[in-house]
Hints:
26% of the residues lie in helices and 29% in strands. The chain has helices at residues 25-36, 104-115, 160-177, 180-185, 192-195, and strands spanning 2-9, 12-20, 44-47, 50-51, 66-72, 80-86, 94-99, 122-126, 129-131, 149-155.
Amino acid sequence: MPLHVSIIFRQRVLTQLTINENLLVYNLKARITKSINIPTRDQTLTFDGVLLENCRLLRVYKLPSVVDINMNVPLSCPIKYKVFITAPFQNRPLKLRMRMERTLGEMKKIIEQYEQVPSDQQIIVYDCCIFDRVDDALTLAALGIKDNAKIEVILKYNKREDIDSVKTMRMKSKMSTLSPSIRQAYPDSNSEVVIERYRPK
């Protein structure tokens, strides 16, 4: 019988898999490794408080066909992803460190904070896949986003006023990070492209 397994870490779904109950627990761990890049040796899997041992068949534990399995990892196991964000009107990528159980929606909020692109106007593109608002509750791991991922943010709306609004917010943010002498040299709101060549202090 096939099992539809959700791997839970810190009360969030990291990944969902379908696996035959006649396979070993170790085979399930190998599938988890392939999906979210956590080594099998670092995975501790439990169901209803019972440890799932590598050498036992999954059917031994009498798991339901749709099942949540909890995963724990040692403190030494890296659980943060380094991702590189390319946002509209920004030439230099933003580097973020995100925990693997963080959701897409939480990442959008961070992008909004640093890049002034409203989260409700962001469409996330990764590895030729497009993620929209319906994916906001899913974790980065569940979406297949891995360490050193290169992510592009595009605007959901192409209305002129929406684009101008984002440009204005970016301009205000950049002006606030520049020294007074530079702000005086570029008082015009049309100068944001020139100002982007300056690294904020």
